[in-house]
Amino acid sequence: MSIRKDPETGLITLHTAHTSYQLWADELGIVHHLYYGPSIGEADLRGLEFRSDCGFSPQPAGLDAQRDYSLDTLCQEYTGSGVGDYRIGCLRLTAADGSRAADLRFAGAEILPGKYELPGLPAAFDNGGECETLRLTLKDPVTGLTVVLLYGVYHDADVITRAALVENGGSAAIQLDKAASACLDLPFGEWELIHFHGRHCMERQPERTPLAHAIQTLRSARGASSHQHNPFAILAAPHTTEDAGECLGAMLVYSGNFKIECEVSQMHSTRLVAGISDDDFRWTLAPGEQFVTPEVLFSYSAKGLSQLSWQYHHFLQHNIIRSVWRDHPRPILINNWEATYMDFDAQRIWDIARQAKELGVEMLVLDDGWFGSRVDDRSGLGDWQFNEKKLGCTFNELIGKIREMGLLFGLWIEPEMVSPNAELYKAHPEWALTIPGRAPTTGRSQLVLDMGRPDVVDYLYGLFHQLLADHDISYIKWDMNRNMTDVFSRLLPTERQGEAAHRYMLGLYDLLGRLTRDFPEVLFEGCAGGGGRFDAGILAYCPQIWCSDDTDPIHRIKIQYGTSFGYPPAAMGSHVSASPNHQTGRSTLLSTRSTVAMAGTFGYELDLQRLTEDEKDEVRCHIQQCKEIQPLVLNGRYDRLTDAMTDTCFTAWQFTAQDQSRAMVSVVVIDPQANPWPIHVRLKGLDPSALYHETLTDHTYTGAALCHAGLTLPIMQGDYPAVQIMIERIDAV
Ligand code: GLA
Fold first, then answer.
1. Which among 49, 458, 615, 618 is annotated as catalytic?
2. Rounded distance, CA 46 to CA 24, Å?
3. Which architecture does CATH list for 650-732?
4. Which residue, among 120, 499, 457, has the nearest Cα to 295 in the 3D structure?
């Protein structure tokens, strides 16, 4: 039993393998948050609560004499609105009479086997007996608003999921102005915020800042989780490192506008509130209706950041990613994008494919430019007919020849978009997000389809279902190349326009859900101008996501490093591209590009025909090597051996088999030195008493020696040299 409710005190404790989470509803029905941290058994922590007569912190109705009781200072599970808690809140609403208050009081707790589902939204699932659910019901007596707090307790995974169902149990419509998924009040402790900011071509750069006595907000208002911020945050104790110290993560399973807010209160407690961004959000809840918030995945580690990352990696791989591909090595692919951009015909694609096959590649992915009038990025989106004139053959001929070569075939699509000059837009201008009377803002010369419209989703479903049913397609790259503006749905009445952005996400998930269910054998890769929608919501449908449009390996090291704090390397699309690199102009060695790309789902994105014969031989070796190490990347434990943001000379990382039988250490010199210091790395996670052979110097050491004494590398100079060291257990000592 992971969830215990004390029949006498009503105290509820959630237990995972290494953590406890405790809450309690008092006699007024206020649900206190008491604890989230390392396991504390059955201890009753109510005595730890701090009460004081805090000036300017008001008392709930009827408690006038009890000056040390205020919602403004109590740690709570979910807050109401307008009744005395001035910190960042979970809920904001406008009732029929214009009042904005909700006073949420406990109305029942249920413990259920298995994992709850969230209608319309992706959520963690249970593979059988892994999870127990707590349903906590809170009610506002005046409006009739009910908030059901859901907790999914994954004992072994050390993850607690949360979400809220907001229901209108009254007789008049309520406007929801904010409906967060969860609130986490940490009563004590100093915390630093680690978050992942970025931009197109430099996503998920970790930044660590102390929490101030202020509100720090991570958010996206772009209609996508975004390149700029990621819906994942870590709170870490000040001295927490990779290997030691306390930290906890909050990850939203959502791909749209989000907010993660942190506030250190006047009483020095820390509040984290996560959910859909309330900026530009307003949802009308008619009597009897329910609003479902996205899920948040909480996880806690008392053993440093690496442990926290492994918990998320494992959880996303086993409880979020549904694809049958999650346990299978992904085909090594060649994507024609950086080889040709949109300038290609079938012959060019076949030539690329033939060369790739000859070197050991397994799948050809045809990127943007194969349909409609798509000759550049100003046209054609929405007209998804194969362009026989440009390609010089039929679609089936193109695919047939590639299949005959012994390659799988993959295809790029961007379903959510329309070009203003497309036939689709001419036929259905009302299907795009535009505001009547206002010329729409464009991004990459395109408009965004209103995915909140069932007719748009049904149309796209019919179209792409047919495409996949009629053709031998093994892989789809699902792109999304601009952010939302002019968020206005022609289908929604005036007072419901604040729902458009979230309805878009519901439509997107519906479409992704239907297509991935219909074609389970197809490998879907998410993409949004690279990593503009790299989140757990997309991972629920696509087991991998193109990590960034920046394929420069020296930049990719940082991007993949930042991404790895929350997301498993097996989910990161990572390719070898040309040198000099198209995004930065930097020249790097083929072996370096390959080393970096092997830390994700491996592929090529260049014209292999332009390589020298020596380079082609190298590619053959890299592909062979990649196949050997794929199981490590897929299921192994990933260690960051250096801090890619601050260690300036070299970066190193390690994959280790779960049974500690083998490992791979990758080292890339990012700033070759004159008169250099030694490059020295200490390995992690090996069996201390086992004997391992390492390929760097062809020596044998114990795991203890490799982890404590480490390895010294030879001097490496030149254009960012890299080395991959294989470690194999040969014997027990
Ligand atoms: C996005 C993707 C690229 C490529 C282009 C095609 O930018 O991230 O990989 O597919 O679109 O237009």
1. 615
2. 8
3. Sandwich (2.60)
4. 120
As a whole number of angstroms, the distance between CA 476 and CA 571 comes to 15
DSSP assignment of 141-205, as one string? TTT-EEEEEEEEEETTTTEEEEEEEEEE-SSS-EEEEEEEEEEEEE-S---EEEEEEEETTEEEE
Measure 662 CA to ligand 1 centroid, in angstroms: 36
Residue 127: CB atoms within 10 A of its CB come to 9
> What would the two tokens of residue 620 be?
């053959």
Is the C-beta atom of 481 inside 6 A of ligand 1? Answer: yes
Distance 120 CA to ligand 1 centre (A): 28
549 lines ligand 1 (CB under 6 A): yes
472 as an active site residue: the answer is no
Of 506, 536, 548, 484, the closest CA to residue 231 belongs to: 536
Site to probe by mutation for ligand 1, drawn from 374, 481, 546, 576 as the one with most ligand atoms within 8 Å of Cβ, is 481
Task: State how beta strands 19-25 and 3-5 pair.
Answer: unpaired
Residue ID of nearest Cα to ligand 1 atom 11: 529
Residue 233: is it exposed, middle or buried by C-beta count within 10 angstroms (0-12/13-18/19+)? buried
Is the Cβ–Cβ distance between 72 and 264 less than 8 Å?
no
Whether 319 contacts 573, CB under 8 Å = no
Residue limits of CATH 2.70.98.60 in the chain: 3-320
Residue range(s) occupied by CATH 3.20.20.70 in the chain: 333-546
368 touches ligand 1 (CB under 6 Å): yes
Chain mean pLDDT for the chain = 97
Q: Is 337 in the pocket of ligand 1 (CB under 6 A)?
A: yes
Q: Which residue from 537, 531, 569 is spatially nearest to 550, judged by alpha carbons? A: 531
To the query of whether residue 338 is one of the catalytic residues in this protein, the response is: no
Task: Provide the CATH number for the domain formed by 3-320 in this structure.
Answer: 2.70.98.60
CA distances in angstroms from 698 to 161, 664, 730, listed in the order given:
46, 14, 13
Which atom of ligand 1 approaches the CA of 412 most closely? 10
Crossing angle (nearest 10°) for helices 454-470 and 500-518 = 20
Cβ(412) – ligand 1 distance below 6 Å: yes
Q: How far is the CA of 368 from the centre of ligand 1 (A)?
A: 7
Say yes or no: CB of residue 550 within 6 Å of ligand 1: no
CA-based Rg of the chain, rounded to a whole angstrom?
A: 27
> What pLDDT band is residue 733 in, cutting at 50, 70 and 90?
very low
Q: For residue 529, how far is its CA from the centre of ligand 1 (angstroms)?
A: 5
pTM above 0.85, yes or no: yes
Residue-wise pLDDT for 5-45, tens only, equals 999 999 999 999 999 999 999 999 999 999 999 999 999 99
Q: Indicate if ligand 1 lies below 6 Å from the C-beta of 527.
A: yes
pLDDT for 647: 85
For residue 546, the ligand 1 atom closest to its alpha carbon is 8
**530 within ligand 1 shell (Cβ under 6 A):** yes
- Look at ligand 1, atom 2, and give the residue with the nearest C-alpha: 529
In this prediction, residue 158 carries a pLDDT of 98
Nearest CA to ligand 1 atom 1: 529
Q: Alpha-carbon distance 238 to 247, whole Å?
A: 9
Q: Which two tokens stand for residue 493?
A: 């009445």
The architecture in CATH of the region 333-546 reads Alpha-Beta Barrel (3.20)
**All CATH 2.60.40.1180 domain ranges in the chain, comma separated:** 650-732
* Ligand 1 atom 7: residue of nearest CA: 529
**Rounded CA separation 614/606 (Å):** 16
- Residue 560 phi, psi dihedral angles, 5° rounding: -70, -35
Q: Catalytic residue, from 261, 535, 549, 550: name it.
A: 535
d(CA 157, CA 322): 17
